[in-house]
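for the recovery benchmark. tokens below, seq after
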């Protein structure tokens, strides 16, 4: 199960979104994407020190061929960022209902000592972040059928198999500039993965703007007869903006 986690660990860091002033442009998809890029905190901003701390509550399920849950892993992590350096601490962990905190702490500490995992975080940048905007093609897909007041913005890579580029759709409130939801599949999959589908749901937080509330990942992969189907849910809470602001619980684990 720990090996399976490495396939999706790149996705388990939140992407805070700044508060927006005024409506977003809707006539031009590229303009809309640029505006979102200007008002969104991706990993570059996170590592630059805009966020000091957050709690990540993680649940990983391994499913059998019939879609039944075979194994579960649950973790509560505290992520701290200081001077551009990341440190993740496991507060508690369980495997198939049994306590596994100490074993998983030792494994994580060893990987952090080796410097493993840092490069993986590059893949969580949003498609309209400054470093990735030019690698995507954007198009308006009309209103959301479930809520016509929300706008769908589609994105796809400009070149085949470009690294860290995604294909999917963003759901935006054009009247407030809030990013509501993001659905995508990476064009470059992790090792041994055949499919990775990602959904990010955002929520407002006073004084900050939109922040990632819940991340859902559904992934399949493996070699020959060794196949895995994983379903991952990560919830983000206790986000602490840089500058020593008091901790605010923003999601119930």
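predicted aa per position
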């Amino acid at each position: 199960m720990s090996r399976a986690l490495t396939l999706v660990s790149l996705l388990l860091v939140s992407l805070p979104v700044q508060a927006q002033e005024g409506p977003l442009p809707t006539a031009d998809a590229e303009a809309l994407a640029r505006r979102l890029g200007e008002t969104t905190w991706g990993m570059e901003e996170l590592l630059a020190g805009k966020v000091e701390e957050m709690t990540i509550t993680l649940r990983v399920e391994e499913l059998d061929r019939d879609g039944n849950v075979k194994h579960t892993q649950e973790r509560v992590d505290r992520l701290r960022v200081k001077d551009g350096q990341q440190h993740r601490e496991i507060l508690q962990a369980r495997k198939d209902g049994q306590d596994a905190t100490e074993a998983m702490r030792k494994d994580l500490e060893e990987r952090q000592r080796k410097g493993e995992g840092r490069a993986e975080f590059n893949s969580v940048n949003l498609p309209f972040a400054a470093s990735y905007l030019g690698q995507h093609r954007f198009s308006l897909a009309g209103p959301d059928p479930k809520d016509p007041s929300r706008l769908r913005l589609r994105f796809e890579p400009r070149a085949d198999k470009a690294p860290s580029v995604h294909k999917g759709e963003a759901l935006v409130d054009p009247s407030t500039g809030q990013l509501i939801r993001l659905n995508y599949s990476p064009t470059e999959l992790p090792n041994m993965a055949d499919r990775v589908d990602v959904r990010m749901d955002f929520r407002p937080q006073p004084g900050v703007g939109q922040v990632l509330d819940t991340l859902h990942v559904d992934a399949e992969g493996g070699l020959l007869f060794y196949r895995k189907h994983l379903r991952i849910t990560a919830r983000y809470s206790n986000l602490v903006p840089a500058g020593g602001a008091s901790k605010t619980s923003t999601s119930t684990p």
